[in-house]
């Protein structure tokens, strides 16, 4: 069910151990079940060049059904392509040749694509001021949701609701 030239892009952002990779797996699985051709890009935000053994998240994306996966860190795109550094736009240009319907991006907080923000701790609240283009927020029971946020907000335990909300976003946007 290829959607043509207009690929959808959704970023998943949050701090370490906030559930980004698990959410990526859930979205990739749902999108491929619906017949979309899916690609994934992970930013290796912990410093250093991503080693093959540290590409376990990309392997999880692939097992979930992503047709194309990549992990980038310190100028290395784990597709064995090297240059002085990689910008997300450069990686997306490569993905353009694979005719993806949807590209899910894990990380790259400073980019301006539509985002899901994961909040696990009270300190994570600052992320809402640091990122742009927020589609929705997913929060953990450990996050003190004291007042409503300015975005659609789901508990991490409301999987069916947030997956349907996000897939509707992916189906509708051009």
Automatic annotation (TrEMBL):
<dbReference type="InterPro" id="IPR027417">
    <property type="entry name" value="P-loop_NTPase"/>
</dbReference>
<dbReference type="Pfam" id="PF03205">
    <property type="entry name" value="MobB"/>
</dbReference>
<feature type="domain" description="Molybdopterin-guanine dinucleotide biosynthesis protein B (MobB)">
    <location>
        <begin position="9"/>
        <end position="137"/>
    </location>
</feature>
<protein>
    <submittedName>
        <fullName>Molybdopterin-guanine dinucleotide biosynthesis protein B</fullName>
    </submittedName>
</protein>
<dbReference type="InterPro" id="IPR052539">
    <property type="entry name" value="MGD_biosynthesis_adapter"/>
</dbReference>
<dbReference type="InterPro" id="IPR004435">
    <property type="entry name" value="MobB_dom"/>
</dbReference>
């Amino acid at each position: 069910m290829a959607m043509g030239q207009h690929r959808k892009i959704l970023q998943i952002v949050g701090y370490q151990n906030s559930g980004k990779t698990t959410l990526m797996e859930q979205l990739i699985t749902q999108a491929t079940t619906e017949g979309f051709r899916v690609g994934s890009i992970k930013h290796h935000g912990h410093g250093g060049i991503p080693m093959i053994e540290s590409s376990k998240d990309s392997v999880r994306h692939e097992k979930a059904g992503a047709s194309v996966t990549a992990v980038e860190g310190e100028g290395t795109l784990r597709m064995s392509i090297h240059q002085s550094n990689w910008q997300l736009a450069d990686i997306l240009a490569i993905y353009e040749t694979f005719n993806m319907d949807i590209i899910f991006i894990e990380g790259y907080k400073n980019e301006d694509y539509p985002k899901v923000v994961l909040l696990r701790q009270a300190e994570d609240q600052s992320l809402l001021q640091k990122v742009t283009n927020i589609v929705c927020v997913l929060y953990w029971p450990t996050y003190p949701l004291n007042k409503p946020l300015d975005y659609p907000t789901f508990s991490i335990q409301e999987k069916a609701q947030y997956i349907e909300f996000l897939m509707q976003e992916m189906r509708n946007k051009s």
